[in-house]
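Appendix B. Chain record.
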Amino acid sequence: MAIGSLRRKRRLMTLQLTSLLDMFTIILVFLLESFQADDEDFVMHAGLELPASSARSPFKGAVNIAITTGEVLVEGAPVLTLADGAASAEALAKGQVVAITDAVKAAWDSKPRDSDELVATIQADQELPYETIDLVMRSAGFAGCFRFRLVIAKE
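Structure tokens predicted for this chain:
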């Protein structure tokens, strides 16, 4: 009996590397499959000072609207001239700028997209009055856009 117990004690434990490597391979394949790297062509317009945020979420394609203190641009094309960030009293009273509505519709129709839901990405200077941003969003709403993403600068 003493000889049998000595043989058991002398046996060294071995690590089963095959099953360990299989597990690491499965984890690696899972991570590679779940990784997404989406880039969007996005041009930052000069003269904008964006608010800051630390949120992280993937960026999806949308119609790009930039509102500076001097003009409103849809996909980089000037659509409306502003006086020191403010729209005309006539446009504010009307609640819509037809030029913005038409430009958003045309930009959305020309974009390749994953969904039929119109989405607008708005870059707006942090010093703009609320009425101007509201007017642009309402005008885009007349084009069928009811989802907006406001662009901010990461901290």
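Further analysis of this model is presented in Appendix C.
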